[in-house]
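Each lists sequence, tokenised fold; shown next:
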Amino acid sequence: MAGVFGPLAVQSYCFRSIKENVQVADAVRKIGLDRIEICGVHCNFDQPDTFESVIGAYRDAGVEIISLGVERLSGDRDRDRTRFEFAKQAGCGHMSINFDPAEFSAAHRVAAELAEEYDLKLGIHNHGGYHWLGSRQMLAHAFSLVGDRIGLCLDTAWALQAGEKPEKMVELFGPRLFAMHLKDFTFKPDG
């Protein structure tokens, strides 16, 4: 199924109550999709020896892993590389990411180098007003410091929670908009 911005997928976190990847893949097919973004609930990205079994569970069910995330990239090249290795093995073109503010200076440089090496686009996931990269002002500042392989994975609900208008963020960051997370709940101002 294709959406306005490209193929529709589901984030594996939506199935966080299901722990077995075979069952998650089955649930994805039951909702009429065949693409997924895998999160840490369903894969320990620090254990490369498990990657093939995770990837195989989805491949065997006809579900394409198009992304992983949301993963904090730390600047520790060896730790971060395992996430890129998973993406390569799974055939992903994108990773939803985050950075800790204290690690940002080193982390974004390592992330950009690895993104180039592995030919991936990295989308910063805006985690709302509580998160340092939740506002469009901070995202614009971050983007002024990083290369063009690092863009935005716009989460519309978190944008609303931060007092932002998602459509304004689409306009502002269009060329750097690599992915979107849409949620199916009613957002209330009190959270």
